[in-house]
Amino acid sequence: MRCQLAIATIFAVMVMAGQAGAEDGNRGKVLYKAYCSQCHGMEADGYGVNAGYMEIQPKDHTEAKEMNARTDDDLFKAIRDGGKAINKSVLMPAWGKNISEEDIWALVRYLREISATED
Question: What is the DSSP letter of 93?
Fold first, then answer.
């Protein structure tokens, strides 16, 4: 039942992501909800629906100290190539074949916004 709910949520958010234009200022947020929230949580706090089943807990993207430790290029690379690309968790998937470079940059900007950090 929990898996069905998660799949339904993912589908609904992906539909919303497809409806949001690239010019939309909320593009990063919509993409985050579609691709990242299952592990990192709807509030980006590291408590997504999958977090309880993971050996390595997802990062809290609202934590400024942690996010300041990463450059924009690090964040881009982690999203595109997965966590292992920056010596982080191998559980972080590579999204580069699913998300355009433009959308990955939108995600990086959104991560900076929610963590109140700058590169």
Answer: -
